[in-house]
Design goal:
2 copies of one chain form a homodimer. Chain A is of the alpha/beta class. Helices cover about 40% and strands about 10% of the residues of chain A. Among the domains of chain A are: about 45 residues, Orthogonal Bundle (Helicase, Ruva Protein, domain 3), CATH 1.10.8; about 90 residues, Dna Topoisomerase Vi A Subunit, Chain: A, domain 2 (3-Layer(aba) Sandwich), CATH 3.40.1360. In chain A, the strands form 2 sheets. In chain A, strands 4-3-5-6 form a 4-stranded parallel β-sheet. Chain A has a two-stranded antiparallel sheet with strand order 1-2. At the A-B interface, helix 1, helix 2, helix 3, strand 2 and helix 4 of A face helix 1, helix 2, helix 3, strand 2 and helix 4 of B.
Chain lengths: ~200, ~200
């Protein structure tokens, strides 16, 4: 019922996570109505996405240079290593301007239900990095406060136990601007347990 | 913080309707992790989208041939003309196998609030088509049962009043499988007013 080139785009778009066949249809017809000058940059951006891109071999953040701009920055504090799940978590933390250390991107979390085990993450690389770099003094575990994120943090903590490196976990508590009344019990419990001196 | 090619893709994706900056980020990182063989078909599909595609000059459906496969099909009943808002509405109606007539795609609805007036739609083309094709006996107004869709149907009905052509509107009533108790008053009202003989 639809021309082949349109159907092809719908099929390709609906393969993306979170985009169902209806959304793919709507996006495709929207693009069809757009001028070619609007579509071309998107097509080019896709085809050129990986050009010159790689993962930093120190921290596994996505980068155009080796080492990446964070690992290669002499002003960053190499003694603090922040372990995150994802490339976008680095971006999120960088936006706070509260952290001047370096990162280690795991590229996932331990999740037996999704078939993700330790060897699919950059965990061996993390442990080797800590062992071979005695200047690393503190590991900040900044995986998500989700079931899998907590399990991964626990796993790393267990592995590094007894090593001469301080291990910390990002604070879990009430988000800024929130309301005690509407907080879930797990968050409120953590907020009480992890209360800070005033 | 992110490499240029990745940021470019995020920017381009977030220009699409219904895709915000966070979704664009997530999709881009997903694509970054995918092999090139996964990304290339999507990029190609985008760049080739308009190749050989045009709008049928009779019904304004998207097509690779002139006239389109529906208008050019001698088995279709040319006396019944179904007026729809959108290319995807043709697809939706075709999937029911309940309609063997031909279509007219308006490419939008009258919507003063969005600045869409009659001359931006294929309305003049519709009226001319009806005037110059005396074989058209019935116009089925199949615009959406929304405020704008109803207004557009009313507009077409007003214009064609007094012309020797039957005008009908798709039935509005309770959707199949629904529950009377949870129906909104507008729908239930329509369902009662438009009740059919049993």
């Amino acid at each position: 019922m639809l021309p082949k080139s349109l159907q092809k785009l719908i099929d390709e778009l609906s393969k993306l996570p979170g985009i169902g066949p209806k959304t793919a249809q709507r996006l495709s017809v929207y693009l069809l109505r757009s001028p070619h000058s609007r579509i071309k940059p998107l097509g080019d951006a896709l085809l050129n996405l990986k050009d010159g891109l790689s993962f930093c071999e120190i921290c596994w953040h996505v980068t155009e240079t080796t080492p990446c701009s964070i690992c290669g920055d002499p002003s960053r504090d190499k003694s603090k290593l922040c372990v995150v799940e994802d490339v976008l978590d680095v971006v999120a933390i960088e936006k706070t301007y509260q952290f001047k250390g370096v990162y280690h991107v795991l590229h996932g979390v331990l999740s037996p239900i999704d078939g993700v085990s330790a060897d699919q993450l950059k965990l061996a690389e993390l442990f080797k990095r800590i062992e071979t770099n005695p200047e690393i003094k503190e590991i900040i575990l900044a995986t998500n406060p989700s079931l899998e994120g907590e399990a991964t943090a626990l796993y790393i903590n267990k592995y590094l136990e007894g090593k001469s490196v301080k291990i910390s976990r990002i604070a879990r508590g009430l988000p800024m601007g929130s309301d005690l009344e509407y907080a879930d019990i797990a968050t409120l419990g953590k907020a009480l347990t992890n209360r800070t001196d005033y």
